[in-house]
Design brief:
The complex is a heterodimer of chains A (about 325) and B (about 300). Chain A is mostly helical and about 325 residues long. Chain A contains 12 helices and no strands. Chain B has a domain of about 210 residues: MetI-like fold (Orthogonal Bundle). Chain B is mainly α and about 300 residues long. Classes of the chains: A mainly alpha (about 325), B mainly alpha (about 300). At the A-B interface, helix 1, helix 6, helix 7, helix 8 and helix 10 of A face helix 1, helix 7, helix 8, helix 11 and helix 12 of B. Chain A: Keywords: Cell membrane, Membrane, Transmembrane, Transmembrane helix, Transport.
Chain lengths: ~325, ~300
Amino acid sequence: MIAYVLRRILLLVPIALVVGTVAFLLLHVIPGDPAAVMLGPEATPEQVAALRERMGLDEPLAVQYPRWLARLARLDLGTSIFLDKPVTEAIRERVGPTVQLALYALLIAVAVGVPAGVVAALHQDRLLDRALMLFAISGTAIADFFLAILLILLFSVTLRWLPSGGYVEFSVDPVGHFQSMLLPAMALGLSIAGLPARLVRSTLLEVLREDYIRTATAKGLDLEAVAFRHALRNALLPAVTVLGYALGDLLGGAVVVETVFGLPGMGQLVVNSIARRDFPVIQGVVMVFAGIYLLCNLLVDVLYVYLDPRVRYAGG
Amino acid sequence: MPAGRAGAVARARLRSRPRGWRATYVRDRRRAWYRVLLSSRVAILALAFLIGVVLTSVLAPLLAPADPQVANPAVRLRGPSAEHWLGTDDLGRDVLSRLLYGGRISLLVGTCVTVVAVAVGAVLGLLAGYFTWLDGLLMRLLDGVMAFPGVLLAIAIVVGLGPGVDTVVIALALVYTPVVARLIRSTTLVIKRMPYVEAARCVGLSNGAILWRYVLANSVSPLIVQATFIVAYAILAEASLSFLGASVNPEVPTWGNMLRDGQRLLSRAWWVALVPGTMLFLTVFALNILGDLLRDALDPRSQERREDAVVK
């Protein structure tokens, strides 16, 4: 087990190198002078030259690239052009609401998706199954930000139950915090809940055909007890891995949904940086999310082996 | 669904074993896949809807009642009426016309992204799956690209290269290429151990011929299914980019930037957001359904036990 974890961590090194290299290339695919592009047409040549100097863009790529990697290794993501502070600081100020939103959404997705999948599998091909799966496919087809808009239209504009935007710190007002996060988390969570629902359903149906399930039913246990006590445990694993994969989308989705509700998270940071072409910030956000994704996937993989001893990791 | 790869990845994984390679010899004894597909009323409906979207988008210049970009302050925020079937926005622009033109961007981006991702991804997947010495390197590269959240990576590229259909296509193709490559790699790993590949090698066929005639040819079914889902999720991703203002030139109407305008006007003119959002949903939904039914039609085993054939 420990050897496995160590090997997984070692495997992360080349991937992290690729991530750093792609992020480096992102800046250097900018056609023309990146400094001039970032500052826009109003900038004076002196300003452009100063920025180029500050970012070390004058040096040959063979010098810039190792320097970039060395900086990354020290978790230094450079300086924002417009905010005039280190990118890591700008991100640290904004990361809270985004990660909270992604976590709440994950909770909602699991709380809705897994039971829905189980119920659908137990009612295979009957009306309830079809209705649930229709919802699941609708969820995977609706844009998260459109679902957010629909929820605002229903719960804020029409019913006036929940705020359509704004953010309340948990430490300031826990009730207000959940009120402000409920709609965004629902929008993101429900839009992704179809994935675990469909996966739990299809793996559960497969597991229910296994011999040990037949044994359990032959013993006289009723189907529902078997499904929950024996089958679900084995059917959950694929759903867990897919949610691990979906995490990247969840974080990206959190960025989009956040902007709908005006939460002061990474989304706002990204949108502002798009308009200002503040490239170091976008580069930094992208890398931070890639890092979170890699760590979470490591966690999911380790969890997988821990939960299912049959999975013995073999290379690749 | 949040835009990104999870949808496309998961849908192809619903059945975990590589599909397709058995199809070649089993299919002859069964109905042709398109007959299976067209025997489903839902599939015909989805196809008809998609053909309708394609036609109305292609013919938008002929069909649109007004110029999608011209503001007309006299008719600001009008609800749906005989004159403006789907109402107008806060600048008095005709929502129906903008919807039709917006479809062009969505479909163009969706198709181009899929073509590029399938072409590049299939080549990379074949190489990684067939040549063991390349596998480690290629897969680590793809894992690195996969680590970036799809939308955010695309945003970074569009901001770097500047707005435009071409940059959006490049950005999203980069996002979806690893999905295709992984799929084809896994089918290649199975197919290259098949007796008929061994036979082909014994007869003296070159690696290139084997890859093209046997490995790729037998991967076509799963590839088509995956491609359908990539069209769907690329359309969704483009809408997200447009919504955030990192897609084509903001003057050009797209479903995503119409939704952005619509959100601002939600309490005064619900139709401005609801119209493009519903259209986006229906298009992605139809593509999803079609992908599911295609998978069932192309996979002879699922005709026997269709446990996740949801709609029939």
